[in-house]
Amino acid sequence: MLIGQIESMWASMGPILNVYYREIPRGCAGTDEHDHLIDALRAGNKKKAREAIENDIKRGSPILRYFEERGCD
Fold it and tell me: Is Transcription regulation included in the keywords of this UniProt record (predicted)?
């Protein structure tokens, strides 16, 4: 079930992220939180997993601003 949700989310976000990442400076991929999340899940550390997800959401705000500024509501 989780895999299906992730695949669905990626299918909808992939094209959007493709546009965004073509226009930002290199090295701003934002994958650190994903690595932290995977490590936390493997370790069974719910607190660290939650922190990684929260940080990923917070770090996503520039992406939202980027599209909002271009009238892509």
Answer: yes
